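Exercise: predict the fold of this chain.
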Amino acid sequence: MEESILFAKKYLEDLLSFFGLNIDVYATKEDDIIMLSVPSTHMNGFLIGQRGDTMRSLQYMVSTALKNNNYEFSRVNVDIADYKKGRQSRLAQQALPWLDKVRTSGQEMSLQPMNAADRRVIHKLADEQGLSTISVGVGRDRYVIIRPVGEDQVVEDEEESTKPAKKAVKPKKTKSDEEE
């Protein structure tokens, strides 16, 4: 594992040096995931990209390099200037009213499509609140349905899981989302 961490750290530092950034990346391990944290720089916006797209691309590149070089661990999480931590906290705050609405109304609610990391935040928060969730759809169109407990129904066929949501809630943009 130590070799995997050192390789991932060095690889990301080398990628960042192509952008003229000679900085130290902080590398740790959580479970089977290599956590790489890039400190804040004057290029945060560029490195994060719109809604974290560039950051996810860097993450993908590091993960692919680990796989191609046959390292033991290849799951990587890249966070630049604690962007992901802040995004998770903002998303959790946005989700609380949705969870309350499902709990009080007793009706399920479908959210807009979101990336895997955002879906995990919703799943975890709903579970903590005593609600159930399911991810439905494929690829970029994958979204979460929040359900009251007791309505756990596995979607039987693929055709049903790709239908658009009946009642989608679009997460509101925050100032920090617009600045990216």
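Check your answer against the key: The first helix runs from residue 2 to 17.
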